[in-house]
Amino acid sequence: MFGNYLIGLREGLEASLVVCILIAYLVKTGRRDALRPVWTGIGVAVAVSLAFGAGLEFGSQELTFEAQELLGGSLSIVAVVLVTWMVFWMRRTARHLRAELHGRLDAALRMGTGALVATAFLAVGREGLETALFVWASVRASSDGTFAPLTGVLLGLLTAVLLGWLFYRGALRINLAKFFTWTGGMLVVVAAGVLAYGVHDLQEARFLDGLADKAFDISATIPPDSWYGTLLKGVFNFQPNPTDLQVTVWALYLVPTLALFLAPIGSGPSVRVKKQKATDEKADAEASSGTTA
Q1: How far apart are CA 139 and CA 144, in angstroms?
Q2: Closest C-alpha to 190, from 79, 100, 274, 48
Q3: How far apart (Å, rounded) are the C-alpha atoms in residues 235 and 3?
């Protein structure tokens, strides 16, 4: 459940921060007239994401067992690829996310209502589709016959919405770069488990060989139905009897990915970000002058 809570929190907080930045910028610059198209774009993005998740869940139920496993395994791998790209991208841009979104919003304001709707939709929709896909893959991988995995995701999303509201109200301030680094590292560990589970699905679908070649079997030591077995499965997608291929893929993904993710990155902002920051400061000064006048 914790692993799914982490996914809901991390993915939901990214979307919440995007919404807060867009709305706060419009309010601060006196463009409340643009709030409606932005909220429209956000609403459409949320609806599309929910529809995508529902399509994955209910559409897969109409397939044969082997087709379900093939679809589940393939989408699990796609989800891991997307989430891996996302955690690296967010770690690098978390400190400059505000400046980048302000630049996009300024351009959309000059182009009109349709551009505002599209900007909000794309900014939130990308996060929403990634979240729907990874949540579906993770819940499927850690399912224990109960609603605990889905409950964890929902609690994470609700926490993210609350944190987003507190950010907007100015009641909460944390170092986002460090937050996304730590949660991103934990998400890489969760993604490794999802990847291994996806490989197992492809083996059950007979797309990959080696289903009978077990790397080890510690089911007697860690029974899957025990509380600690359930905990390990919920947090790390742990399997007590993985195949050789699952262990190999898990290690080949986790070790280099985590090492690269935790390696130091350049701290200096790019020229484009510096230029956008100067533009933001100028806009803030003009808005303050207008308010004073």
Answers
A1: 9
A2: 79
A3: 4
CB of 206 closer than 8 Å to CB of 64: no
Question: Quick one: pLDDT at residue 293?
Answer: 47
pLDDT confidence tier of residue 247, bands split at 50, 70 and 90: very high
Phi, psi of 214 (to 5 degrees): -85, 130
Closest CA relative to residue 192, chosen from 138, 240, 150: 138
Tokens coding 102: 């302000």
**CA distances to 90, 95, 105, 185, 263 from 178, in Å:** 11, 10, 26, 11, 13
Contacts of 272 (CB under 8 A, 6+ apart): none
Going by pLDDT thresholds of 50, 70 and 90, the confidence category of residue 85 is confident
Indicate the SS3 state at residue 44: helix
CA dist list (Å): 87 to 1, 25, 77, 144: 20, 25, 16, 27
Q: How does DSSP classify residue 175?
A: -
The partner residues of 214 in beta bridges, in order of sequence, read 243
Q: Dmax of the chain from CA atoms?
A: 77
CA 19 to chain CA mean position, Å: 15
Helices (H), the chain: 2-28, 35-60, 65-93, 97-111, 113-142, 148-169, 176-204, 227-236, 244-262, 271-292
Distance of CA 169 to the CA centre of its chain: 23
Say how far apart CA 109 and CA 107 lie, in whole Å: 5
